[in-house]
Design goal:
alpha/beta, eight-stranded mixed sheet, 6 helices, 12 strands, 33% helix
Length: 208
Amino acid sequence: MSVTVVKHPLLQHKLTFVRSADTTTDNFRRLVREIASMLAYEVTRDLPTELVEIRTPIAACRSPVISGKKLCLVSILRAGNGMIDGMIDLLPGARVGHIGLYRDPRTLEPVEYYFKLPEDISERLVIVVDPMLATGNSAAAALGRLKAAGASSLKLVSLLAAPEGLRTVQAAHPDVPITVAAIDERLDAQGYIVPGLGDAGDRIFGTR
């Protein structure tokens, strides 16, 4: 399985301010949306294209359009919703699904509470979004549920990943490529990414 770290200077600049504890809720939300758009650009780099006939104001020509499977973005609730709008900005025709998971604070294992997908999920390329790939348990569970629902073409996109989370997802789903903005040092005793950016959901929605 491949792991792509997007090191574009503009993205890394924005990520620095996402990490900062001084960044306000409105700016944090805006920056996550902007970074999500940049990650959407990267994760769709290998979409197939085909040539179609069009006419410009000057002449007729053949020009590429995206072909192949349609897209579905799947948010792992609730923090994933902070990335969805930025992805849709670039992929306005994509359908959107949701998987509700929360992490049990004692076991750090995911507990599912919501699951809603387009009916034709098996016919779509599914891009799963979750800002933080920490333990990897939620992402691995979400990918497993999607496969059980018929999804066969999957990618995972996160802002930050911990090495522990990458190992968990790689072990459970070696066929799923991962795209991230950074791989951080480790997890702390509470399962948070270090240095990380704190709780992404709390910072996106202004809760504690």
